[in-house]
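Running log. JK asked me to keep both predictions on one page so they can be read side by side. First protein, sequence followed by its tokens:
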Amino acid sequence: MEASKPLFKRVLLKLSGEALMGGQTSGLDLATIERICSEIKEAHIHGVEQAIVVGGGNIFRGLNGEAQGIERTTSDHMGMLATVINALALQSKLEQMGIETRVMSAISMQSICEPYIRRRAAHHMEKGRIIICAAGTGNPYFTTDSAAALRASELNCEALMKATKVDGVYDKDPMKHKDATFYPELTYQKVLTEDLRVLDTSAIALARESKIPILVFSILNPHGIMDALKGKGRFTVIK
């Protein structure tokens, strides 16, 4: 496996809202955002075209809102708006680093970002701009994991990179179980049948249908994005 250059030309990076919290219990940690953006910049410098789908769980999670008595559709829309806040924070930091970036929202709010239009998004990527896809799919009952698989398929991405707090997929939570078994490689079917909960089932099914490999790696590891792109270090490939 060639380690000197990226294995993929165009990828979709899925970031959870929680990844932006750093050591906080909620909200945004600017030092963490800067570190993540520096790694995105590193991949950009190596010529990797990137689309990013970001979650909103650090600000508001739709399922939690429903549990507190907010109607599910309304709660999910609130979660989508949280992803726009995160996307704008990422855009601001990336542009401070000299990288052209576009936030594209599935919910129209043209005074602060562009509407997501597939051809326009592809054009931005071809021009070397990073696009950040916000507001999920724009529909309630769908997670940002589903949005990531959908955008990766629409934009002809060669891989979906799922950034997590652990360095791959295990048979059980390695944070709670020291005997958890690490999987360096998995099939889509095994993830579904064993309910490994890497992404939601609709996202896995769509990635399988589109034949897009999923790379699961730790966003906490220094240079984690580039290492996974080069096939280095510890991560899981689902294909």
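And the second, directly underneath as requested:
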Amino acid sequence: MRHILAILLITFSTQVWAEEGTVTGLQLAEAPIHRADMESIKRGAKFFATNCMSCHTMVYLRYDKLAQEAGITIDKMPINVKTWPYGVTPPDLSLEADIRGADWIYTYLHSFYQDAERPTGVNNLLVPNTAMPNIVGPYQGEQVLVKDPTPDLLGHIRWYDAVKLTKQGTMTPEQFDETIADLVNFLAYSAEPFHAEQRNIGFWVLIFLAVLLVMMYFLKKEYWKDVKKHKDEQ
């Protein structure tokens, strides 16, 4: 049921956020993640431990070996913090990739722009007036909102058309894209830590069922031979 709901959320997420977001018609970018790339997942886990865990918890991954090796442990999570700036408690991100979808997270982390009217100094294309500060800003740099961005031939507007980089951070745009892809890859892993194992098991289960089907077919033929012979004898 959880996966069905997640699929429905992902299916309709583009339409929903086009209506609620800062830019009408904004389309989600496709996150270039690879669930089998464990090195990418490990890099994403280390980035999360260094940059995200001061606010966000990941309680459902507290016993995961990969997370523990990256420093994501229960004693370092802000579980006991009761008061947060602006009265907004940062969500646990264990299942965020299942709830929002990898494309939504990838687009969200790219979509911060400067907004002097906000207490944090930034705003976001997908979540207007977000209480989350731009923690990736030092890496990405500063972006400003583009007025009246031009849609493509299909009427779609991408995040990179709606904002403009005015000051580069410590990373080049290519390096930043790779880092965010690693982080989103880790968040996708956290939602389904046994995704690769499940696919492998599913493959062998299908082979077993195919062999079993063939065996059952020949067994059926043998049974029906006896049934037919018994009817002929009568």
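Observation for JK regarding the second prediction: The domain at 2-193 is CATH 1.10.760 (Cytochrome Bc1 Complex; Chain D, domain 2).
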